[in-house]
Amino acid sequence: MQQAITDHVDSHLDETIEGLKRLTRQPSISAQRLGVLECGEMVVEMLRDAGFDAGLVPTADPGYPGIIAELKGKSDRSLLFYNHYDVQPPDPLDEWETPPFEPTERDGYLYGRGISDDKGPIAARLAAIKAVRDTMGELPITIRWCLEGAEEIGSPGFHEFVEQNAERIKSDVCIWEGGGVNWDGRPMVMLGVKGLLYVELECRSAKTDSHSSYAPVVPNPAWRLIWALNTLKDESERIAIPGFYDRIRPALENETKAIAALPDTSREFLHDLGVEMAVGEASGYEFRRRLIMEPTANIAGFGAGYTGQGAKTILPAVARAKLDFRLVPNQDPQEILQNLREHLDRNGFSDVTISSLTSEHPARTSIEDPFVRQVADSARRVYESEPYIVPSMTGTGPQHPVQHILGVPVASCGIDYPGNRIHAPNENIRLDYFRLGVLHTAELITELGA
Amino acid sequence: MQQAITDHVDSHLDETIEGLKRLTRQPSISAQRLGVLECGEMVVEMLRDAGFDAGLVPTADPGYPGIIAELKGKSDRSLLFYNHYDVQPPDPLDEWETPPFEPTERDGYLYGRGISDDKGPIAARLAAIKAVRDTMGELPITIRWCLEGAEEIGSPGFHEFVEQNAERIKSDVCIWEGGGVNWDGRPMVMLGVKGLLYVELECRSAKTDSHSSYAPVVPNPAWRLIWALNTLKDESERIAIPGFYDRIRPALENETKAIAALPDTSREFLHDLGVEMAVGEASGYEFRRRLIMEPTANIAGFGAGYTGQGAKTILPAVARAKLDFRLVPNQDPQEILQNLREHLDRNGFSDVTISSLTSEHPARTSIEDPFVRQVADSARRVYESEPYIVPSMTGTGPQHPVQHILGVPVASCGIDYPGNRIHAPNENIRLDYFRLGVLHTAELITELGA
After folding, report:
1. What CATH number is given to the structural domain containing B227?
2. Dihedrals φ, ψ of B223, to 5°?
């Protein structure tokens, strides 16, 4: 890397962090439609300040506009960034050490909702672009940027957004959100996302809560929902929806090799979360294989009856469960939704309704793609250590339309570290890794223009 | 009944209702420690106005005093009334047609929190006592009254209260709270209560909520609690805790006969609640047998993870369930608590903790007790129809210490009807049944003195 770029990044780091704090102070909770538009406008303004031709672009829901931006460089070779400017709800609030929308620095860490996911990466990329441009007078390549405001609610309308704006965002390669280092500080190049099916199951009985002395005769929807859920997965953790595993593409040899090459960080991972034992007592290779390659059926929420202080003897009128299924290639969320409905019906739970709240297809870029080598090479130089190649993130994003409509290879290059408390209270970034993420982005831009 | 007593009740009915409204306007929510003491003082004042020697009596918790009152009559034969002056929390508030603590008359009904449970019965009994005393110059028997302010939170300390004050409240017979008419308007004499074990189960995994992409390796406490609960009861509705049914005293022939003699009100019951089908499709005799004779394992609440609007992909750190078990003779709540612990351990759920929030022993008075005939005979005369004998209420109350420490037969004699929305929004009484309840109480006092 040119020393001038490093110097620029370092001398502007305070300014960069200030911009990130400003962005974090603006709540943008898509699940609650809170501040999303305001945050989108702020991002457009920041893009324009950095020299981009940028603007909000309507999606199917006007409350969640996309953003498309372009900054022409010396060559037509083009890099697409994907990010989102919405964040997860901050609750439970009482577990935050400092308020989620008042970004706070402590001991080299910066805390706040969205600071890691996904406002930190936006600020880091802006800083990298400015450093390269200011230093070289002009970007060596053209950078396009596509952002959305509804990623945390499953990117509704993003598929159509990509279809409708394909000409404006199509680029040679794409850097996704996320990315960063492993527990040992070595960079990770991640090449895909899991798919998602997010459903809410609901069971009703009486029209209002009633006295629990009626329990011998009035069906309890909480019990029914528990029994229904129990048919989906039991203590063996095997998902019992017929067909659930049928379409899964077996692991490729290069995926297996890449996973084997990753360090065993299961102890750090579990210790950080305060978890005693992994599911299935998995450790080592099997721990990593599960995280990266296994689909899941997770209960994200269950609510029924009285959950406050003390005893209330009530028979609930309604019970609801939120479930997210993380899917791996080549599972299809719509097919799984249908299989779930049929499974519940077959097991006598046709009274349990299903609302599908969001879904995504899984997506992966081939480990053999030349772009992967470029991202890895630039990372090796900046981090001064050998990058890990990770076949897929454990999380989800709308990468499928980008890979399949635009036909673009996608990899990550970011600022994260595994202790970032993503989606949880005290979400944070480490400022040293933030700096390295900025430098890696700048290095990659330079390399792509070489 | 003497016409003079009926006339007194009728000519003072407006005044009686005014007293009831005053009592209802005073919130006394034991679960929230709201207005309980103030309400207790108001009840003492009303008892003194009616000629009682009455006062607050401390219980283990000074926030929930008991009340003991006595009004000597012509003979030493004595009748004990049990009531409570605390009420359930009024929520959900938005389902009330008029505010819960502003008692409102509409079309012969009176609405308000506590109007049926248990302030209406207090006002009715006071009115009956005044009518008998004013008419006859003196009560024919001695009346003692024992009230508590913590019934709605499981009567903590009531057992000790009865033990410590046994000499002051011991009487020949006892009239409990509750009682009144069935859907057809015929009076019901109820002879017991179910017992209760109320527990909160809790399961924890990570120290905070985490990203649901960790689901392949981080145990989900919501799943674990669902699997644990599924071992307690499955779709057959049979409670699977070993020993749960072992001690249950089989139904006596006179209980079976009494239940058979009750009318089939299952359709009215279910229609009123908006329930399509009873548990096990029970109707007729089986419906009534279940309600009165069956113990239950009811989920009063289940909370885990995100239960708000929309999708949040979180892996919950904690899951909690509140369960109430209604118990029948001779089940022992402490033994069942221990069996529950052992059952969970045996099934691999020693990570699920149990907190016991409250418990009561079941209690029943024998149908053969001469007191039952006196309550029924007086009811027959007032209601001009054959009373139903109901072996037990479906609900719970602290009747066990009264029956077993004082050795007193207990029956009900009240003002309720089945549409009273007890514990729910729009709790109400019917004024015609209220009047009949007053007359029945007066008639019983007269009969006991004959």
Report:
1. 3.30.70.360
2. -60, -45
Does the residue A257 lie in any domain? no
What whole-number distance in Å separates Cα of residue A249 and Cα of residue A363? 12
A-proximal residues of B, 26-85, CB under 8 Å? 31
Residue A378 maps to which CATH number?
3.40.630.10
Confirm or reject contact between B287 and chain A (CB < 8 A): yes
Total domain count for chain A? 2
Question: Is residue B273 in some structural domain?
Answer: no
Residue segments in chain B with a per-residue pLDDT below the cut of 70: 1
Residues B201, B184 share a domain: no
Sheet containing A296-305, strands listed edge to edge, beginning at the edge strand earlier in sequence: A353-360, A195-204, A318-327, A296-305, B298-305, B318-327, B195-204, B353-360
Distances from the Cα of A187 to the Cαs of A382, A386, B347, in angstroms?
9, 7, 43
Question: Residue A208: closest CA among chain B residues belongs to which residue?
Answer: B273
**pLDDT, tens only, A2-26:** 899 999 999 999 999 999 999 999 9
Q: Say whether both A214 and A67 belong to one domain.
A: no
DSSP string, B159-211: HHHHHHTHHHH--SEEEES--EE-TTS-EEEE-EEBEEEEEEEEEE-SSS-EE
CA distance A95 to chain B (A): 8
Give the pLDDT confidence of B134-154 residue by residue, as tens digits.
999 999 999 999 999 999 988
Q: Which domain holds residue A338?
A: 195-248+295-360
Q: How far apart are CA B444 and CA B376, in angstroms?
A: 9
Scanning A129-168 for CB atoms below 8 A from B yields 152-154
Under 8 Å between Cβ of A191 and A367: yes
Last residue of a domain, one of A312, A329, A360: A360
- Among B337, B360, B383, the domain boundary falls at B360
**Residue B208 shares a structural domain with residue B97:** no
ipTM: 0.90
Angle between helices B3-11 and B120-136 (to 10 degrees): 130
Give yes or no for A277 touching B (CB within 8 A). Answer: yes
**What does the pLDDT read at residue A311?**
85
